[in-house]
Amino acid sequence: MGRGLPMDWLEEYEEKIKRYIKNTSLARAAMVYALIAILGSVACTMFTANLLLIWINVLSERTPSPDKVVFVLNEMRQWCPYLYMAAAILLASRHYTDHRIRAAIGELRLAVGHMAAGDLGFEAAWQSGDEFAPLFHDLTKLRELLKKDKLDQWRMGEEQRRINAAFAHDIRTPLTVMKGYSEFLIKYVPAGKVTEQTLLDKLERISYQGDRLLSFSKTMTTLQTMEQREVHCRQQDAAAIKGRIREIAEGMKKEGIAISFTDRLKGNPVLTIDLEMVLEAVENVLQNALRYAEKKIEITEEYRGQALFVYVKDDGAGFSPKALREADKAYFSENKEEDKAEGHFGIGLSVTKMLCEKHGGELKLFNSIEGGAVTAVSFFAGSGNL
């Protein structure tokens, strides 16, 4: 047991040196490698020089003395420091390059290769505290950003396909109706079998279906332009934001429905937001609440966690389970024909969701425990105090 203690201490000390070299900067690691090389070469030189000196002394005591062998040994004794130093520097440089430079570059090339091949699930890890560590950290952030962008593109593609499918399905009815009325008129008008009133009635219905098609095309244009819309933020104080929200609510107010406000924007913070985008989202949510409210609507503004929140609560029947899942999808409607007859095509909350997400926030739908629906919109906003 006692004989093992010095070796254990030596191994522990060696492990500490390895950890230090691994977690220190490249410059310091190079200095440590150089120091080890120097110490190693000095130790080997001392050992070799002493060994050669012993042989020289032994040979010198012989009669006759082998002068040539002694000469060679003296030459070796003089040159061994330089030879050992060169060998130690070469070995230390090779070890340093392989373990600190080439290993990191190899990991970086491997990670970049996976990213270039579209494999964004590959994680590059560099277990060291040297200058390569921040580079690996930035590479990980880039990978996460590319992964997020790829997922967003996939979701947008899926959403666009779903919207196109819904659009194609919804325009089929107006086109079928218009085709049927047109064929009827083409067949019976020349024969004089259609009265003037019937003709006007058919033309009126064709015109109505044409208006529906125009409305459909406008909603598609709105959704497509929304995807290309950019956020333009400016500093706005809380008073201006509250005032504009109240102006919108007052302008949209319906008879028999009271609108109340709760202000939680404490300290009158200055928020960096795209006010027009925020107001458009709030307007869409308020319009939806006005359709289902019975007597009152409550609007609450709040700022927390560098985000602006606006809650719109109505006292209606609340969201159905299906609406909670799908109301923020384009063309969603539980009373499809009735809504379309009133000019509602189910894109208000879908557009609101896009606006919130473009502004770094989100749209949430839930039912109040007191009854009624609650729609929450949030937007990322920088803050300072007046």
Notes on the protein architecture:
Helix 3 runs parallel beside helix 4, helix 6 runs parallel beside helix 7 and helix 7 packs antiparallel against helix 10. The two termini are 72 Å apart. This protein has a five-stranded mixed sheet. Strands 1-3-8 form a three-stranded antiparallel sheet. The relative contact order is 0.07. It is elongated, with a radius of gyration of 40 Å. It is of the alpha+beta class and 386 residues long.
Write the SSE topology.
Blueprint: H1 4-23, H2 26-60, H3 67-116, H4 132-188, H5 196-228, E1 234-237, H6 238-252, E2 258-264, E3 269-273, H7 275-292, E4 296-304, E5 307-314, H8 321-326, H9 336-341, H10 348-358, E6 363-367, E7 373-380, E8 382-385
Parallel strand pairs: 2-4
Antiparallel strand pairs: 1-3, 3-8, 4-5, 5-7, 6-7
Helix pairs in contact: 2-3, 3-4, 4-5, 6-7, 7-10
Q: What's the main sheet like?
A: 5 strands, mixed
Number of helices: 10
Backbone shape: elongated
The order of strands across the largest sheet is 2-4-5-7-6
Helix content: 55-70%
TL;DR of this structure?
This protein is α+β, with helices and mostly antiparallel strands and 386 residues long.
Key traits:
alpha+beta; 386 residues; five-stranded mixed sheet; three-stranded antiparallel sheet; elongated
